[in-house]
Amino acid sequence: MARLRGAADLIADFSSMFVRGEDGDEAAAADLLAPLDSAVIATASSAYRGDPAAVLARAEAVTAAVQRQRARVSLIVPADGVYSLASARASLVFTVANDLPVPVQVRIGLDASLVAGLSLDDSVVQVVQPGRRALIEVPAEVERPGQFRVSAELFSPAGLGLGTPVRLTVRSTVYGGLSLAITAAAGGLLAVLFAVRLVRWLRRRRRPPVSGLPARRESVRAPR
């Protein structure tokens, strides 16, 4: 029965994605959910009591059916999985495809917790119309140039993932605020050291000659 409860929870999460703004949307959502709900109710009925194997098989069948429907909403990434940032503050742009007959709301989650120098705001929730594709921008801020490996995944509003996570590479050739501060501090330190050396050199130039040194004698050659 645990597997059957898991299938029911998966259906509820699937339902949380639907945007029912119009009557047609409500009808389309009902057409998608009704067969799944009926399969769960039928499996939990008394007809299958005493036959755990049959319950497990039907629960797995329901789960597979839900997953097939959820897979109709997918995340599309570049073929090489590489994103390039042209400035310290930019956005990673993703494409989300919705092949369902009802509008859905989704969120792109990015895992950069182990990456130093890259900050991402993945709290944006986007509505994708039925049979359409939509662009979702995830604001990013980089503090240093280099390459960053992150993981991207599509989520429902209830928090379950849609599909499997995708590994991406984010490349940056710009300097963020921290890098600029370090560079400016290093440049300032070099300027101070140069000024100190210049002052010392000027002081040595301005010192008077030391008195008391023996006069230099001219050597005279005797005539032959």
CATH architecture level-2 label of the largest domain: Sandwich
Share of residues in helices: 25-40%
Overall body shape: elongated
Structural class: alpha+beta
What would the CATH topology of the largest domain be? Immunoglobulin-like
Q: How many distinct folded domains?
A: 3
- H-E order: HHHEEEEEEEEEH
Supply Rg: 35 Å
Question: What is the typical, i.e. mean, pLDDT?
Answer: 81
Could you name the ranges where pLDDT drops below 50 across 5 or more consecutive residues? none
Give the total of beta strands.
Answer: 9
User: Proportion of β residues?
Assistant: 25-35%
Secondary structure tally, helices: 4
What does this 3D model show about the protein?
- This protein is an alpha+beta fold and 224 residues long.
- It has 3 domains: 2-70, no CATH class; 74-172, Sandwich (Immunoglobulin-like); 176-204.
- The protein is 38% helix and 29% strand.
- It is built from 4 helices and 9 strands.
- It has helices spanning 2-16, 23-43, 52-70, 177-206, and strands at 73-76, 82-85, 89-98, 104-111, 118-120, 125-128, 132-142, 146-155, 161-172.
- Strands 2-9-8-4-6 form a 5-stranded mixed sheet, with no helix packed on it. A 4-stranded antiparallel sheet has the order 1-3-7-5, with no helix packed on it.
- β8 and β9 form a beta hairpin.
- The longest helix is centred in the C-terminal third of the chain and has 30 residues, at 177-206.
- It is elongated.
- The N and C termini lie far apart (130 Å).
- The mean pLDDT is 81.
